[in-house]
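Sample intake sheet
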Amino acid sequence: MLFFYIRHGDPIYNPDSLTPLGRRQAEALGKRLARYGLDKIYASPLKRAQETAAPACELLKKEMTVLDWTSEALAWEEFASPDTTSGYTTWFFQNRSLQSVLVSPEMRALGADWFRHPALAGTRAAEGAARIRHKTDAFFASLGYVHDRRRCVYVSERPNRERVALFAHQGFGLAFLSSLLDIPYPLFSSHFDIGHSGMTVIEFSEAPGETVPRVLQLSNDAHIYSEGLPVKYQNRIDI
C-alpha cells in the first residue's frame, strides 16, 4: 500500500478556504495524482482540505470520505500553548519558549511519553497524544495494517496494493505522522515540516507479516514546479 498524506493548498483561514494560488496548487496536485490513480480519498472536515482534494476527486471520479478526527481545530486545542516570548498561543513546534525543551535530552528520554514533560503541564498534550494514537491505529487497521506500538511495527493482516490519500493539515499532520511512524512528536515536529499542498508518501509492505512503514517522500511539491507556480515555502522562503 502507498499512503499519501497531503496538506491543503495556500489557505485563507477566515473564512476557511483556499486562495487563488491555493486552488491552482490543488489543480496541479490533482493532475499529478490522476497520473497513477488513487483507490481511496479521505479528507478533513475543514473546507481548505476538501477544496484541495476536489480536483483529484473530479479527475479520478472518486468521492472523498470525511474523517472528522483529522480536523485542525481539534489538534489546535491539544497541541498548542501560550508562547511566553510573544504572548500569543501557538503550536508547540512554533512556540519559541518551548524550542529548546522539545529537543532536550530530558524530552528525548521520555520517548513515547513525551507529554509527561513538566513544560507541558496544563496543556492537553496527553489527551491529544492518546486520541491521535487511537484514531491513527484504527484508521490503518481498517486498511489492513495493525499497529503493534510496543514493538513499533505493523502487522499486514490484509496487505494490499491500494493507493490511499488523506488531505488534511500541518498541525494535525505532524502529530499524525509522528504517531504513524513511531517517532516522538517533539522530535518529529521540531525537525520536519510540511508545506502547502506538500505530498508525503509512505510505503507499507504488500507482503503478509510484519512491516515498518517507509517514508519515500516528505512534503514533495514537484507538482508546483511542473505547473510553473510560485514556490515560496510557507509564504516566507523562496526555494
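Comment: The mean pLDDT is 96. The longest helix spans residues 125-142.
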